[in-house]
Write a structure and sequence with these properties.
The protein is mostly helical. The chain folds into two domains: 39 residues, no CATH class; 98 residues. 68% of the residues lie in helices and 0% in strands. The chain contains eight helices and no strands. Helix 3 crosses helix 5 and helix 6 packs antiparallel against helix 7. The longest helix has 18 residues.
Length: 142
Amino acid sequence: MTGHLGGLQAKMKEKFNHAIFVHCRAHRLNLVLSRRMDNIKDCKDLFSTLSGLASFFLKSSKRTRALDIHDQKTFPIVAPTRWNYNGRLGQIVFLYRGSLIHFFQDVWDNKGTWDAETVTAAKGYLHWLKQNFDFCRDFPFH
C-alpha cells in the first residue's frame, strides 16, 4: 500500500495534493525492527533463508502441491517487513522441520522428476535444516 511512486501514498497525493503521509505506529515498528535485523548477520541470514524457503514453494505450483501432499502444510505469503509473517513462518519451519527434511531428501533422491533449480535449492535447504538449526533452542516459537 505504501510507496511514493505507485502506492497508496502516490494515489492519495494525486487527488489531495496537500495530504501528508504518516506511517502507523505498528508499521513504523515493523520497519525499525526489519532494518535493525539487517544489521545482525545471524538474524539477517535466518530471516533471508526463511523467506527464501517460503518463496521456494510459492514460486512453483508443482512444489506447493508436492508439499501439500507430503506434509499437508503451506507457507504464509512472503511479506518480509511483517513480523507476524516472520513469526508464523519461523513457527512452521520449527514445528515441521522433520517433515521438511524428509520432503527435501525426497526431492534430492528423485532428482529426475524435478528441474535443476528445485534440486539445487532442495540440497541447500536440506543442509541448512540439518546443520544450522540451533536457533530453535533460543527462538520463542513454542
